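Hey, I'm writing a tutorial for new members on how sequence and structure tokens pair up, and I'd like a real worked example in the thread rather than a made-up one. If someone can provide the structure for the chain below, I'll link this post from the tutorial.
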Amino acid sequence: MILVVSYDFKTVMDRTPFYDALKAQGAWWHYLASTWLISTEKTPEQVVLTLQVHLSSHDFLLVTIMGEQFQGLLPKEAWDWINTQTAASRLFIPPHGNIIPGLSGKIGGGLLGGGGSLTGGSLRDPFKIKK
């Protein structure tokens, strides 16, 4: 699953331990100033517990699961990462070991916009997940 981690630092302090702990949660993407996407099997609660020790009592932190519908204006590389991680988290491995994609249709993104939906895709620059 992909977690959205957003924060607002209210105090001045060394943030290196926070960023190191954040990067250790799983595969990550960071194009927005105070928002990260983390591909992980950890719950939002587990991530908050790990990160909160690196925050002051005046800082804010939000960790949530990224839903199946999303939209935004991001570079193509961002949509590529989101689509790859979303597709990877939707794989189903049956008992006999063959990997079967758990989604069909389009999820997409574009250089100037786009986004995705696991059910319907994007209207701009969609691409098809290969089975």
